[in-house]
Amino acid sequence: MPTLLLSRKEVSALLNMGAVIRAVEQAFGDWAEGRGTMPPKSYLSLEKGDFRAMPAALPGAVAVKWVNVHPQNPSRGLATVMAVIIYSDPDTGYPLAVMDATEITAFRTGATAAIAAKYLARRDAHVLGIFGAGRQAYTQILAHAELFDLREVRVYDVRPEAVQRLIGLLPQFRLGACSPEETAASDIVCTVTPARAPFFKKAWLRPGTHINAIGADAEGKEELEPDVLKGSVVVVDDLRQASSGGEINVPIARGLYSPQEVYTSLGEIVAGQKPGRTDDRAITIFDSTGVAIEDVAISRLVYEQAKSGSYRTIDLVG
Amino acid sequence: MPTLLLSRKEVSALLNMGAVIRAVEQAFGDWAEGRGTMPPKSYLSLEKGDFRAMPAALPGAVAVKWVNVHPQNPSRGLATVMAVIIYSDPDTGYPLAVMDATEITAFRTGATAAIAAKYLARRDAHVLGIFGAGRQAYTQILAHAELFDLREVRVYDVRPEAVQRLIGLLPQFRLGACSPEETAASDIVCTVTPARAPFFKKAWLRPGTHINAIGADAEGKEELEPDVLKGSVVVVDDLRQASSGGEINVPIARGLYSPQEVYTSLGEIVAGQKPGRTDDRAITIFDSTGVAIEDVAISRLVYEQAKSGSYRTIDLVG
Hints:
Number of helices of chain A: 11
Radius of gyration of chain A: 19 Å
Oligomer: homodimer
Number of strands of chain A: 15
CATH topology of the largest domain in chain A: Rossmann fold
CATH architecture of the largest domain in chain A: 3-Layer(aba) Sandwich
């Protein structure tokens, strides 16, 4: 029994955002109901970047993702983030596939935010606002378009050329370059920037907005003014991870916010253990840090499609 | 730049025990002197087996090993333990190679025990005793033969056929089937069994013996009577890991032994921060749990040899 090898191009061709969203939503429900296993990520910090080992299991699937963040890579013609998944048989440990997970990582982040918006945004949400026109913006828009009738996508970035590039990449949607205030005045706002200090102002907030706070994914990172959290309904993917490295980490470290103020986790809402949005005027915030069960769910989807196809294989451990 | 793919057969052909021992010894020294990074292993327990994600970095190298233990595998014609390493460029995060690590895991365990014996056994050690004639026994003998003039190897196993098979595999050494007492009366004793209760008796101990206690690598596992530890010089690979899952874990949990009684770590001895054996009559014990820096050191060795060869590659993340 050989191990399947799936390159980035091959994985990309197998990814369909609708199917990815369904798989990730199922994974959050399974996890909340005790059918998933996810030990904490292992972090490894080196001089020029860091690495994370992210293992997790879901029914019928187990995998580890090995992902790096090297901010100086673009100057060398390499992506900042690259990822590989080893996908194994939970019953024997056999490595069924080794696959690129760079695209999986981008898809799962978009998919998870859209799932959060499904439960937390207003039902009549039609305007999406994006802060940060980098790689993550693309999959955020694709994912929200699967679940919402997007009449308008407002985009702000400190680099106007990045906004124009994104507009060019997504001609099928009504994207427009907007001011920060205009972008913030959307029904659903996604913050996908590398900011280390808050840029999203409390003064911009309108009642009924849902915010997907994506950018803060490590200690010391923060996109929203801490006051934005106050009085908002905050939902996390994983409370421990969010408290140490998500949007709430800096406010908690400064004593401005407490983990007890978090409403619940996305998994509990998906599983029906807690309701999502109940008030049209509430501000809701999803603090996304990225959890390995998302990656396992998508790698299972990719493997199940690929296993009967004609891809390269290697007798890796045999 | 493609990613190199190295199968088990290809890795095996590149492994040379002498070079492996030198690489692992260097790694322990580097780690003790602060030139290595190793977060704790991530454990994932499932119904039929468990998985460990083991990331670590050494100068110029970073990798994660994904390894399983599935005790029922032999009945399905599969190995109990299989392992894969993703070996990356520390400066960019690029996955330079994906390689089998099943043989690497066996080699590094043997190499580390032999390095411990180099510093802890008597200089005139010539007789090696092996408890447990399974897979690990083979690499224990190969490794000790690199550093000692082995005039005799005594082997005991509850399964006499396993002893005969091992003898057949190593015709170049003077192996013999022995009683437990004869095996224990060796200069260097390696315990490489899956025992969950102590079988090695205090009464068998002779002054000046060095014991490599290998088998206990998870909570609840134990090979030596707790009294064997008392009055002995105990050295660990990693104190935290040994305390929670090594030979000393059960005695510690029962209040029969304390982590403060451990003399030092192998890295500190290799780095010259603490002396090894100083008394010909002392009993020395190396408690081996297996640390990821060993795997990283060997994967670097394998990669450096393979990178200029003609092996398969894949444009995995490109």
